[in-house]
Amino acid sequence: MRSVTFVDKVELEFEGNLLSNNVILGDINNDGEHELVVGNVEGDLNIFKGDAVTAWARCSGLGMITCLGIGDLFNKMKNVVVTMNAEGWCNIFQFSSEDKVGKVCMKPVDMVPCHTQHLAANTKMILIDDVDGDGMYELVIGHTDRVIRAYKWMEYSDDNPSEQSKGILKLLQMWEPPGQIGSIALHHQNGIPKLVASQPGFCYVELKCTWAEEGNIQAYNENSVLIVAHSISSVKARNSIITTEISGHLSQGTSVVDEPQCDKFVLSSLDGNLMMIQEDEMVWSYKLDHQLFSLTALDITGDGKDEVLCCAWNGMTYIADQEQNIAKFRFDGNVAAFCAGRYTIAGATNPCLVYATFDNKIYVYYNVKLPRIDSVNLLDLLPSTSEYLDLLKDHEINQSDKETQANCIRKVLYGCDSISTT
User: Terminus-to-terminus CA distance in the chain, angstroms?
Assistant: First the structure.
């Protein structure tokens, strides 16, 4: 395992206590640029743009914010920001692509929710995605009392088209898995979306969406709830009560096979286990030395394949590719919340890592790019460059003479012909 270093960062100002799902990245105003949304338990919601250290927009008095979401909840091809608090109040914020930040942001814009609705309390996490495969986005909320609820935005018949998003979130279905919910994810099997939730002890459950039949929404019926448990057997997953996280729908890049493939997804546990799964079979597993509390997927190598990023409470961050090559980055400080995604600075949208600390600081590492995750031998890499081959020819060094090449490289880099082993 090799260590990597990221240098480019922005330090943001944000006060208050954060929960692990209170930091999220996304395009909130549909202008193609990605912003950072942060909420705290004191009820403050801030949106940051670019390299400005102060918020571009804010809202307060939202209660104890426990989780955030960004997505096309209204199904109008425009993202919205969704906040949930511990008492069950859902606030939705809608923005326009014309809401851009100026050169100098003297005072944050005051945000007002476009919709507020009371849902079930004790919220923990949000997922906004097409979970039933109908092309429309749903809102899935996980709760601390082991309940998961799915909602769909139902538009009112409105005679006044000037009004924005008049409607209500309608409950579609409710599930109650046997164990505490770590996180919720969506992955695909043969092109069919599967809603899954992690369970303690390196397990997960598949949640069947039974509300749609022949295109008509059915009323919620407890008897129609379907939960399919999946247990992944592994000698490394011995603790049956350890908290588990799940991240699904890992992009596998372009493939010569046009047929849909089963997604890979990944599980992590608080005791440091990391495991990649495909079709209920373990692809690989790895035991790390830190408590992993956050798990996400992001392509940071630019090859079209998602890497897995997991973060520990002490700031240690692991980056694993789908072939089990792992690199680590050490953030200097304890972490209250972590997320990875894309962020826009100076017009460039690049992969980034976001760390929220316990001392009212948020650090955005905004130029997180790695050419590869695995370690590579310099002697194996250099022959792929024409300049190096020309140098070998000029110095009359045989391309197969690795020892002579190594001595030359040592002399260039360190000013010596060899490295002492004593």
Answer: 25
Q: The dihedral of CA 96, 98, 100, 105: what is its sign?
A: negative
Higher pLDDT, 23 or 2: 23
Residues in contact with 239: Cβ distance below 8 Å, sequence separation at least 6, in sequence order: 201, 269, 271
Q: How far is it, in rounded angstroms, from Cα 248 to Cα 193?
A: 10
Q: How far is CA 328 from CA 143, 173, 293, 311, 336, in A?
A: 32, 40, 15, 10, 19
Residue 385 gets which letter from DSSP? S
299-317 exposure pattern, b = at least 16 Cβ within 10 A, e = fewer: bbbeeebbbbbbbbbebbb
| E strands present in 156-291 | 167-175, 184-189, 192-199, 203-208, 212-213, 216-217, 226-231, 244-250, 264-269, 273-278, 281-287
Q: Any idea which residue has 């890497």 for tokens?
A: 307
More confident residue, 387 or 245: 245
Distance CA 323, CA 6 (A): 23
Average pLDDT, the chain: 86
Burial 152-161 (b: 16+ CB within 10 A, else e): bbeeeeeeee
Alpha-carbon span 417 to 397, nearest angstrom = 15
Q: Three-state DSSP class for 380? A: helix
Report whether pLDDT(75) > 80. yes
| Rounded alpha-carbon distances, angstroms, from residue 75 to 130, 188, 223, 390 | 10, 21, 29, 58
Q: Alpha-carbon distance 84 to 70, whole Å?
A: 12
The residue that leads in pLDDT, 261 or 132, is 132
What is the layout of strands, in order, in the sheet containing 184-189?
184-189, 192-199, 203-208, 226-231
Q: Cα(117)–Cα(92) distance, rounded to whole angstroms?
A: 9
pLDDT of residue 401: 81
pLDDT in tens, 122-133: 999 999 999 998
Q: Compare 64 and 304 and report the one with higher pLDDT.
A: 64
d(C-alpha 219, C-alpha 303), whole Å: 44
* Antiparallel, parallel or unpaired: β 109-110 and 57-59: parallel
Q: In the predicted model, what is the mean pLDDT of residues 74-100?
A: 90
Which has the closest alpha carbon to 233: 198, 181, 282? 282
- Closest residue by Cα to residue 276 from 223, 304, 240, 318: 318
Q: For 408, list phi and psi in degrees, rounded to 5.
A: -65, -40
**pLDDT average, residue stretch 229-254:** 77
Identity at 400, one-letter amino acid code? S
